[in-house]
Write a structure and sequence with these properties.
There is one protein chain. The chain is an all-alpha fold. The chain is built from twelve helices and two strands; from the N terminus they run H-E-H-H-E-H-H-H-H-H-H-H-H-H. It has three domains: 87 residues, no CATH class; 46 residues, no CATH class; 78 residues, Orthogonal Bundle (Non-ribosomal Peptide Synthetase Peptidyl Carrier Protein, Chain A). Helix 5 crosses helix 8 and helix 9 packs across helix 12. It has a two-stranded parallel ribbon. The chain is 56% helix and 3% strand. This is Carrier domain-containing protein.
Length: 235
């Protein structure tokens, strides 16, 4: 999705709410499935059966809609009541400078993995140290790792190789220029089909099982790498 959007090419990305009879929700116990139904109902949405899902998919494919699509059965009254909450949930309070820094982090990390030494002037050109302290801890850790790579953590060469293999494969399968290892893969257009392709390709390259559902359960490259490392150690 990101690849095509950046190039002005037409694309269709479908994001689903939960299918009642298929997918992640089926791994929950009945009580938790009912709780999911209650949460969806409060938002004006609902889970749906396979037949209802097929109807929604056929409707999407038959329409001229392109871009990002969220097919769903909506309770208009409940949805309208929740709309202000849904629209403000992702509002960011970071300054434009901080937002620019966050957007550039993946590129800086990629360059460092390629052997380039990070120039701290690229950081100080955007923000001062006082403003840096307002970032979330995960971003502060990532920036510290850029500045002091030899002092940060105890990641082994094997773990680095695993992380790099996953990163390269994600970029290849999802047709990206770069990827943030701390961002959910679904933000880059991962869906059920590309999850199967990605899992199969990773299995071949890593020589160990990779289940498609792990790409959802461990949604970021960093989390997936940590899980695969644990799986390999337990074999």
């Amino acid at each position: 999705m990101a690849y095509h959007a950046a190039r002005g090419k037409p694309y269709l990305s479908v994001s689903w709410s939960d299918w009642r009879q298929t997918g992640a929700i089926t791994r929950l116990c009945e009580a938790r499935r009912n709780r999911v139904d209650e949460i969806f109902a409060a938002l004006g949405l609902k889970t749906f059966s396979n037949s209802e899902g097929r109807y929604l998919l056929a409707s999407v494919l038959a329409s001229a809609q392109r871009g990002w699509v969220f097919p769903a059965f909506i309770d208009a009254t409940a949805f309208a009541e929740q709309q202000p909450v849904l629209l403000t949930v992702n509002v960011t309070k970071e300054s434009p400078q901080l937002q620019s820094l966050i957007s550039q982090l993946p590129q800086w990390e990629y360059e460092q993995r390629q052997g380039q030494v990070f120039d701290i002037s690229r950081l100080t050109a955007l923000i001062d140290l006082d403003e840096l302290k307002t970032l979330a801890p995960e971003f502060i850790q990532r920036i510290y790792a850029l500045i002091f790579p030899d002092e940060f953590g105890s990641t082994s060469g094997q773990e680095n190789a695993l992380l790099q293999t996953i990163t390269d494969t994600v970029i290849e399968v999802l047709k990206l220029e770069q990827v943030d290892t701390a961002q959910p893969l679904q933000n880059y257009g991962l869906d059920s089909i590309t999850a199967m392709v990605l899992a199969t390709r990773l299995e071949k390259r890593l020589g160990q099982p990779v289940k498609p559902r792990w790409l959802i359960d461990y949604a970021t490259i960093t989390a997936l790498a940590a899980h695969l490392q644990t799986q390999e150690a337990s074999v």
